[in-house]
Amino acid sequence: MVSLKIKPVRKVGEQWVGQGKNQRKSEFVGCKRDFWGDLYSALSSSGISRTKPKPLEQVCMILGITLLYVGAVLFINGIWLLGKISNQEVSIINILVGLLSFIIALHLIFKDPSNTVDISAGAFTLLFSITYLWIGVNQWLKTNGRGLGWFCLFVSITASLIGVHSISGYATSFKLWNTANWFAWSLLWLSFFYLLALAKPIQRPVAIYTIFCAIFSGWIPGVTILLGIIST
Description:
Helix 6 (about 175-195) runs antiparallel to helix 7 (about 205-225). This protein starts with 20 loop residues before the first helix and ends in a 6-residue tail after the last helix. It is mainly α. About 75% of the residues lie in helices and about 0% in strands. The longest helix is centred in the first third of the chain and has 27 residues, at about 55-80.
C-alpha cells in the first residue's frame, strides 16, 4: 500500500482570529504544495512514475504515424483522380498531411544533430511533404500542375536511388518491404510526372496504382506498426 502523509489544514477558529486574508491564503497554498510533494514522493517510491519511451520505440511510432496518414492521403488522392471528389475538398487532407509530415521531418532533422540516420530520414520525408502541400495548393488554385510534375520526377529519381542503396542493407522482412516501398513510390511519382508535366492520358491507371500504394505501402504497415504487430 502507498501511504501519503498530508499535512492537515488549520481549522477556521481561534488560531485565525485577527489574521488577514493574505496569511490565510499562504497557509492554504503551503498545504497544497505539501500535498503534491508528498504524492509525488509516494508514487516515486512505489515505482509508479513516468518513464520515457526508448528512442527506437519513438522512431517506430513516428514511422507508423507517418505511414498511416500517407496511406490516407494517397487513398483520397486516388479517389480524387477517379473523379469522385472535388478539388477544394481533397485539398484539405493534402495540406493537413503535408503539414504533419513537414513537422515530423523537421523534428527528425533538428532533434539530434549527431544522428545522421534521422537527419537523412527527415530530408527524404520533406520530399513527400512538399509534394502533398504543393498538390493541396494546386487543387485550391486550380492550376495545371506542370511544375509539380517536374518536381515529382526529381522525387522519383531520388526514391529509386534510395531503393537501390537500401538493397544491400536489409536483414529483416520489414527492411525488405521498406526497400520495395521506395521502388513503388518511385514508380508512383514517375507516373505523376507523366500525368502532370507531360499531360499523358493515364489518369485512371495512375488513380488505381495510387490507391494500391496507399493500402500496401502506407495504411497497412502504418496500422501494424502502431499496434505493435510488426517492428522495424
